[in-house]
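Re: [help] complex structure
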Amino acid sequence: MLQAGEWAYSETLKEHFMNPKNILQGENTDDFDGVGMEGNLQCGDQMMVVIKVDKEKYIITDCQWKTYGCASAIASTSVLSEMVKGRTIDAAFNISPKEVAQELGGLPDNKIHCSVLGDKALRAAINNYYTRTGQEDKVKQEQVKIVCQCMNITDHDIEDAVLEGARTYLELQERTKCGTVCGLCKDESEALLEKYKHIHFGA
Amino acid sequence: MADMKVYFDHNATTPLHPEVKKEMIACMEMFGNPSSMHAYGREARANVEHARQQVADFIGAKEHEIVFVGSGSEANNTVLSLFVCASSQCSPCSKRNTIITTKIEHPCVLETSECLVHRGATVKYLDVDRYGKIDLDQLAGLLNDNVGLVSVMMANNEIGTIQDIETITKMVHESGAYMHTDAVQAVGKLPVDVRTLGVDFLTMSAHKIYGPKGVGALFVRQGIPYCPLIRGGHQEHGRRAGTENTLGILGLAKAVEMRAIEMPAEEERLLHLKQVLQQGIEAQIDHTSINGHPTDSLAGTLNVSFEGVEGESILLYLDLEGIAVSTGSACASGSLDPSHVLLATGVDAELAHGSIRFSMGRDTTLQEVEYLLDVLPRTIKKIRNMSTAYIKGGLHAASR
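Output below.
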């Protein structure tokens, strides 16, 4: 008989969950140069990331966080907060959810969704730093493009659907209703489906 | 790493009762097919029929009104499927193809109902109040000549709320419809008598009451139209094809035998433990709320929402300390929505994500409750310390 005790999570993830690093103590964020908040409590996950920046070298010197979220959210943000320290702002901005998942020793597919919030909040914090320091021109808006005109479905909606488990065009349609009216966007939607599967799951 | 292992998830499943285990081991070599005419088969048949009598006696039914099935889910699927049939020849209610159920049923009822809609049925879902009780006036308003079946869970698995099945059944029968109750969480925990309740169909399961997994029973009142879900065999008088799970059936019978002995004294003990747990939580942890009915509720079930904390993280931190619970959080279920039961009672989505169900049973001790009360407050404190829910200017703070 097999013994219990093996979690669906890696040992690294478990360690970061048990002893999360860089948690913001208290509520005061005045000492930080950038504050980013993503998600909301109604959906069951919310993330806040705060950063300190070396303004000469454009290097992130400190990164702390708080979350309302599950084990994956806690562990992935703990790992992320360690990864960004010492990196340049640009390098930090470009950290992908896949890199975070790799650092964690992998995540179950249905948990990737929960780990994405950390780097979204990090990018929000970096943009917030740019805004506060009068560098609005550097704020990088995440481009949103409407793919399905009939149902008003964006590339972000498709990315979210992939993160939530859609793997085939049919599953994508079930989740987003994209391409269910005129169907003209099928090729583009399928291309995006493959792209996000590759980015997040290496598939 | 945890020095104590405690199980607070009895509504999910229960450990085998030692007497059930003993009985099953003793019968392990009884391999005969109850349908065979030779001695091996007759031995198995005698034992299965004896078990049927025991199960029938336990719920006040007649022996031939018990159909052994593979699970509570199978029993529920069978009953619902009876009421939607393309053939007007065999369907019990070909003219009555509306089913009424509730918003807090087990997914095996809800998903089957959704599927039946595609096959031509109309399904209506009763609302519940903040305690999880259905609205009898709403039911009265929905009952008419088109309604073939009403299916209402007797005791809810998540919040423990108990419905007044006897009253509901009277209303349903007056309208000419049949009544089913999913009593998987009720049988063996509350006195359940099918004659008193008046129901036409009742679902029960072995593994919730210290019996084995993979076996349950469906009560079908004598003379009620019936049509099998699984066809191709004469077993169970043609009501459920497939060679009988003899060992499981004997386990179920032993489980109800033990329930009959142990249940009467158990309720008071569990109510006391629940009271200790609830009072302990309320005294040591602020911003909590209790879900479910304050009195009409299963003695061993306590469902609590903790503000500002997500349920899966509570569950996993408790698991690290050797404590097993379950949560209504979306993250633990793999879906994106939190518990449909809590949402139906009007609990805010955030509080539903932060809900934990503690379910106790015959083996739960006061010492275990005290251990839980030692670990839980610091676990919640640890998670709240890293929670965004308390940040000034955060989304939550603005609404508080």
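The longest helix of chain A spans residues 109-132.
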